[in-house]
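Morning!

This is the sequence you dropped in the shared folder:
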Amino acid sequence: MFFRSRPRLVVLSLLGLGMLAGAGYVAVKMAHRRAGRESPPSDQPDGRKALLDVTRGRIPDDVGSDREDHVKMTIEDCAELGGKALKVAFASPDSFGDRQARVQNWTGFGSLQFDAFNPGGENIRLTLTVRHRGSTNYRTRVDLPVVLGPGKAMVRIPLDKTVNVDGSAPNLSEVGKWYFALESPRAATFYLSSLWLVKAGVAAATGTHGPPAATATVTVPAQRYRVTGKIGDMPVDLVVTPGENLAPAASAAAPPPGRTGL
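The structure's back. Tokens below.
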């Protein structure tokens, strides 16, 4: 009886070994995938986490229109930023970012910080969009204006008072997608350092470490105010950002170029 059941035992043993090997392979692949999405914890400064680690060659994986001729992104040396930087070249209005944020939980972080260099002679106007767990349409996502003047700038985007387009509070415990959309001019080239999520009270983060350079600090307003009522017989429902130019803009009325819906 033992000898008759032996082939069955051999087959079951081989199946078991195959399942273990398959599980081990999946675990290794998942570990490699996680390593590619986020930098090892030992490389993260205290109180900071890299949303995009340019020094490790990370490049955003999404272009809004899916047309590579609209936005080209490369890692290049940038003397003004003191090392490796993400070069972004817009040939046409579009957007770039990550389909799935490499850091999904933004709670506890006071700001998003990075260095930028604009080699041109005019302002570059961008919109940073953050889609999160509570985003169901354009009005329930976060849209923040970012203006890069000529030269180098240290950009700081407060997160603790950030609101959605409609003025409601975002759910930053589960961020799905983020991207920058070009508002003006129609074509632009600029450089970005690593993007850092920084806890409140932690010193300003710089994505690269280079020689001192003339810089401007750009603090993006995160607080918006909703104004409702009537002017005569006309209903009014506006979301106003302090200091923002109230002239009509693409981001104020509709999703940025290359994006529809969310």
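Headline: The chain has two helices and 15 strands.

More detail when I'm at my desk.
O.
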